[in-house]
Write a structure and sequence with these properties.
alpha/beta, 6-stranded mixed β-sheet, 5-stranded parallel β-sheet, 12 helices, globular, binds adenosine monophosphate, binds manganese (II) ion
Length: 322
């Protein structure tokens, strides 16, 4: 019996939490957990609290059950936190973790300090959904659960192509496919499909991107006024940084969007050398070696300057090692 099964079996109430601005891995893991818990322990009182989940994930079973506003609740027996690298990223739902009788964190962020009572953190796993799969009884994974887990794996691996993808990831994806899920539709509708406006802002961000360090780094920024002009929000900017990363010759890509005056949400991606999780952690964020993020203040110039100092240092260290 896994730690999760043991804790689920004992609990009478369960609250499931993920990170703010939930992405595919977070939503997939939380809803997989929600559906699995219902099968494993049918009498269980279950809740999932997440910030608004994008409509593109509405095909997932349990989507309509997600609550997005904090409510008065009796303390839960068990709080499971998924794909959330630190307590602060639980946002306002952190109160449920604080008041729960027991807690379990399942994650794959190298920067996770292990903030729950029990922590299952595998930084080498592609996604939280991959870690979660290892905690479940395979015999209980039905199509609903498989669709959730598959969605998470697809999103965090860029459809099984980022370097975090291992042969184990592929094996799990294969087993999930074998349940009969409509994998082509999941990939197209939740990962690739973009609205016209999302495509336009992507185009504009690429047009305005700037390369530096001999074409090895690139950055682009979307200002509040651009988002207003195109009628888009932060969730419509997914994928811009991944597009920058795949430009020929690029080692490190930076994408930032304005959240407030002189405040930027920064996303970083790297290809071979730069450990972006180290840089993001330095600026109060976190993530993975090849994909990380943080929030920074100052002008665009300040932010890029601060980041590029760290990137340059790492790139020079690498050259010195060779
Ligand atoms: P993003 O660039 O937002 O797609 O995030 C890349 C990775 O870094 C994801 O795994 C995020 O969970 C993580 N991440 C992004 N922003 C933060 C942050 N402020 N603090 C901790 N982790 C973050
Ligand atoms: Mn995530
Ligand atoms: Mn993840």
């Amino acid at each position: 019996m896994t730690k999760l099964e043991e804790m689920l079996g004992r609990a009478r109430s369960l609250v499931i939490l993920g990170h703010i601005n939930p992405d595919g891995d977070c939503v997939g893991a939380c809803l997989a957990m929600y559906n699995y818990a219902g099968i494993c322990n049918p009498g269980l009182y279950r809740k999932v609290y997440l910030q608004t989940v994008p409509q593109k994930f509405s095909y997932l079973q349990g989507y309509d059950e997600v609550e997005s506003e904090v409510r008065q609740e009796e303390p839960f027996d068990l709080c499971v936190c998924l794909d959330c690298s630190n307590k602060e990223r639980l946002g306002g739902f952190q109160v449920y973790l604080e008041s729960a009788n027991s807690s379990l964190c399942i994650d794959h962020h190298v920067t996770n300090p292990g903030y729950a009572q029990e922590n299952i953190i595998w930084p080498q796993a592609s996604s939280t959904c991959e870690v979660l799969y290892g905690q479940l009884d395979e015999g209980l994974i039905n199509q609903d659960i498989a669709a959730c887990l598959y969605t998470g794996i697809i999103h965090d691996t860029g459809v099984l192509r980022f370097s975090c993808t291992s042969s184990r990831t592929m094996e799990i994806a294969g087993k999930l496919m074998a349940t009969g899920i409509d994998f082509t539709k999941i990939i197209d509708d939740s990962y690739f499909k973009k609205t016209y406006l999302q495509s336009q802002i992507l185009g504009r961000a690429l047009m305005e991107s700037v390369r530096f360090f001999d074409g090895k780094c690139i950055f682009t920024v979307v200002k509040k006024q651009d988002m207003t002009f195109y009628g888009v929000g932060p969730k419509d900017l997914d994928g811009i940084v991944d597009q920058l990363r795949t430009i020929d010759g690029i080692e490190c890509a930076i994408f930032m969007y304005e959240t407030d005056s002189h405040m930027y949400k920064v996303s970083m991606r790297s290809n071979n050398v730069v450990d972006v999780s180290r840089i993001a952690s330095y600026f109060g964020g976190g993530g993975h070696v090849r994909a990380a993020g943080c929030t920074m203040s100052g002008s665009v110039h300040d932010v890029v300057n601060n980041l590029s100092g760290h990137i340059e240092k790492q790139m020079l260290e690498e050259t010195a090692d060779v």
